[in-house]
Structures are given as structure tokens and as C-alpha cells.
């Protein structure tokens, strides 16, 4: 350490408003800061909640310690590389896995907490999407774009699906036999199939058509 150099640098929360965005060097737990809490709540997609910190050096002190470095290369820590690998795109998945993810139970964010009518304390609830009825013609729109910070990327994961007998029964909401009778009959052109008793005919689909987008975010065409 330099004798009498004072503060070598300041750490600022990226995107925050000065002066509240600077972390205090006297605080033994500098990340326990309201500005950090707000940034975590506003962090976008692309991994777990995270914040960005900027180290602002005193220029003369920095040049004295490291010299005049025009191009600095900072090696990522191993934890950063592991997170990047964990969020890389899969090579392929099944349409059934897409539906499992779509109907997966999720915990609401702290901002969406609801007040319990009994204890009067905000609680983080959960939300789960379920399918109640199915149409004669089922149109599935796969989300192919992903927002990471300020950038959008096209997802190139190959989705595998059956050409005949797509079974939607595992993704339907559980209900009684009376509600199941309201769905109506399968289309008359459907040839008879050997179905297990647990799989109603109304829940099976054959592939009729596929529309694919070729290209990037900047352009392309549909076939």
C-alpha cells in the first residue's frame, strides 16, 4: 500500500444515481445497501439476480501502481465462467419439456407479494399455469428470442416433437369427470387409435403443419 495515498479507488453501482450509488469503504458489509437491493429487483433475464459494479480509480495512483495500461484484460473468475456455461443454450429439447417448463410452479418476486388476510404480513406467493381446455386445432408458438441485459438473442435450440399422438394429458389441470365431458368429441376425420384408459382422445394431436423462421434478429424469412 502507498503511504498517505488516501482512497485508491471508489466502487460505484453501475446504473445507479450518484452519490447514493457509491459503496462506503468504511462499511464492513458494503453490499448490504438499499441501492444494491433495488438493482437486484430490477436485474433482467439471463441468469440469477446480479448487480454490476464499477471500480473508479484515482488516475495518478493507478498509473503509479500498474503503469499506463492502454488495453486492460481482466480474467473472469471461475464462478463467472460456471454461470455462463450453465446458461448456454441446449442443443435440443423435447416439446414435452417445453410444456413442463411452461406449466412449472414459480415463486413471485418480492414486489408481487400479497398480504395474508390472517397474519397481515406480505407473503411471497407462487403462480402456476395450467391448461383447462384444448381446441380442435392446437397452435403452439415457440418463443425464439431471449433478452439478456440490453441485448436480444435468437434461441437456436432444436425442439423435437412427435408427428402423431402428441399427448397433452400430463399438462392439463386436474378435474372431475363432469368437466371432462364438456370438451366434446374428437374430429370425425381422426382414425381410431388404441388409447390407454388414462388418456382421453381429446388430448391427442397429430402434426398438421410447421412454420420455421430462418435467419437472425436482423432479418430472415419463414417457411
TrEMBL record:
Its EC number is 3.4.19.12. InterPro entries: Papain-like_cys_pep_sf, Peptidase_C19_UCH, Ub_carboxyl-term_hydrolase, USP, USP_CS. It catalyses: Thiol-dependent hydrolysis of ester, thioester, amide, peptide and isopeptide bonds formed by the C-terminal Gly of ubiquitin (a 76-residue protein attached to proteins as an intracellular targeting signal). GO terms for biological process: protein deubiquitination. Residues 1-223 form the USP domain. Keywords: Hydrolase. GO terms for molecular function: cysteine-type deubiquitinase activity. Gene3D superfamilies: Cysteine proteinases. This is ubiquitinyl hydrolase 1. It comes from Aptenodytes patagonicus. The lineage of its organism: Eukaryota, Metazoa, Chordata, Craniata, Vertebrata.
Amino acid at each position: 500500500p502507498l503511504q498517505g495515498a488516501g482512497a485508491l479507488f471508489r466502487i460505484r453501482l453501475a446504473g445507479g444515481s450518484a452519490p447514493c450509488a457509491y459503496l462506503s469503504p468504511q462499511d464492513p458489509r458494503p453490499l448490504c445497501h438499499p441501492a444494491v437491493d433495488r438493482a437486484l429487483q430490477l436485474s433482467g433475464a439471463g441468469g440469477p439476480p446480479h448487480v454490476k459494479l464499477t471500480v473508479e480509480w484515482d488516475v495518478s495512483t493507478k498509473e503509479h501502481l500498474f503503469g499506463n495500461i492502454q488495453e486492460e484484460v481482466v480474467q473472469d473468475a471461475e464462478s463467472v465462467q460456471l454461470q455462463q456455461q450453465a446458461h448456454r443454450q441446449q442443443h435440443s429439447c423435447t416439446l414435452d419439456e417445453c410444456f413442463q417448463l411452461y406449466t412449472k410452479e414459480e415463486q413471485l418476486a418480492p414486489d408481487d407479494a400479497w398480504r395474508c388476510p390472517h397474519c397481515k404480513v406480505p407473503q411471497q406467493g407462487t403462480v402456476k399455469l395450467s391448461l383447462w381446455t384444448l381446441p380442435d386445432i392446437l397452435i403452439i408458438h415457440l418463443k425464439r428470442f431471449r433478452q439478456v441485459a440490453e441485448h436480444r438473442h435468437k434461441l437456436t435450440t432444436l425442439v423435437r416433437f412427435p408427428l402423431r399422438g402428441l399427448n397433452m394429458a400430463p399438462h392439463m389441470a386436474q378435474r372431475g369427470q363432469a368437466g371432462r365431458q364438456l370438451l366434446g368429441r374428437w374430429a370425425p376425420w381422426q382414425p381410431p387409435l388404441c388409447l390407454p384408459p388414462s388418456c382421453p382422445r381429446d388430448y391427442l394431436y397429430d402434426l398438421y403443419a410447421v412454420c420455421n423462421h430462418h435467419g437472425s434478429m436482423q432479418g430472415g424469412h419463414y417457411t
